[in-house]
Amino acid sequence: MLHVCYRKIAKRLGGNSVLDFFHQVPKNAHHFLYINNSKHYLINQIDLLFSKSTVTMFAENKTFVIHQQGVECCCEKTSIETDMTSTQLEDYISHSYPKQKFLKIIANILVKKDLLNSDLYFIDNEKVHVADFLSFIINRFDKNNKPDARIVKLCKALAHKNVKFPNVSIKNPQAKKLLC
Amino acid sequence: MYIFASSINFIFADINVFVQTEEPSDFNNISNISFLNPDFVVEESHFQNIPHNSIVILDDFSFKVVNKETKQHFLKVCNYILRHHNITLILIIHNLYSTNLSTEISLSPNIILAYTNLGEFILR
After folding, report:
1. In chain A, what residues touch B10 (CB-CB under 8 Å)?
2. Domain limits at A109?
3. Is A104 a domain residue?
């Protein structure tokens, strides 16, 4: 009976989201992914568990952060950091898109949900800057051109997190499908 | 790529470690280390001489002879000897098919993968 077993490790542990978790670390980075096949969880960069402040764990389609006891969680921003991110984002929007009043609502949602780091890149996808994201969602004439795969991936990740934006604020039809 | 067949939570310093490798210098930093003969295979008879509560590391592991019998020996060691003698078996492999472990890998309770195309292929 054992000879008819197939691997399908990802399928057993949670499907495509397991692969997304694996892809969070760049390929050929000299780190390792740990899979616990009996308890069904994964830990990214397991070799950094005792040296880095935080590592991430995936179990039952949820991601967890593991860090030392007594150390502040990296995901919790101080109010000063949040205010700075908010101000930076508002400045950018008011200068770049002075007529797009609804973008302020999007900015508020992004800041409130702690989706951006201090450089205004998305925490979940550090290759996408908020400027690229905003230019994608307000471009209503983007039907024929193939959108940037990284931004589509980000939109899917936001949809997976149940982050919703008002219909009126998003012009791009593809983004509308995922984010409204 | 490492396959931890028993447990990952161990401290090398207090445990006897038995290693089969062509590169002994890679294991210089491990104390209590003993090197196994190149003819050591995963069979019950070979594991009789391994003390309880120890770690066995087989670097560049592959089945030298592939038939039903060798696979049965391997499974017997994994399912009985390792469990009852509290031995941790660590297999270090660099690919999957030439080692003939494509079925057995799904039975391993602990797997460590590198972030490479092969790692993704195994996970898929």
Report:
1. none
2. 79-179
3. yes
- Specify whether A98 is located in the same domain as A15: no
Across the interface, whether the CB atoms of B114 and A46 are under 8 A apart is answered: no
Tell me which residue in B108, B112, B123 faces A46 most closely, judged by beta carbons: B112
Based on the fold, state whether residues A25 and A113 are members of the same structural domain: no
Contacts 24+ apart (CB under 8 A), B6-9: B6/B82, B6/B83, B6/B86, B6/B87, B6/B88, B6/B89, B6/B109, B6/B110, B7/B88, B7/B110, B8/A34, B8/B110, B8/B112
**Under an 8 A CB cutoff, do A33 and B117 touch?**
no
Asked if the interface predicted TM-score (ipTM) of this complex is over 0.90, the answer is no
Contacts of A36 in chain B (CB under 8 A): 109-110
Task: Give the amino acid at A19.
Answer: L
- Domains contained in chain A, number: 2
For the segment B74-101, the average pLDDT, to the nearest whole number, is: 87
- If asked whether residues A46 and A130 sit together in one domain, one would say no
For B27-73, what is the HEC assignment? HCCCCCEEECCCCCCCCHHHHCCCCCCCEEEEECCCCCCCCHHHHHH
Q: Look at residue B3 and tell me whether its pLDDT is greater than 60.
A: no
For all residues of chain B together, what is the average pLDDT? Answer: 82
CB spacing of A36 vs B122 below 8 angstroms: no
Map tokens 């492999």 to a residue: B93
B124–A38 CB contact, under 8 Å = no
What pLDDT does residue A78 have?
Answer: 56
Q: A23, A40, A67 — which closes off a domain?
A: A67
Domain identity same for A86 and A132? yes
Q: Quick check: helix, strand or coil at residue A122?
A: strand
Of A3, A22, A37, the CB nearest to B111: A37
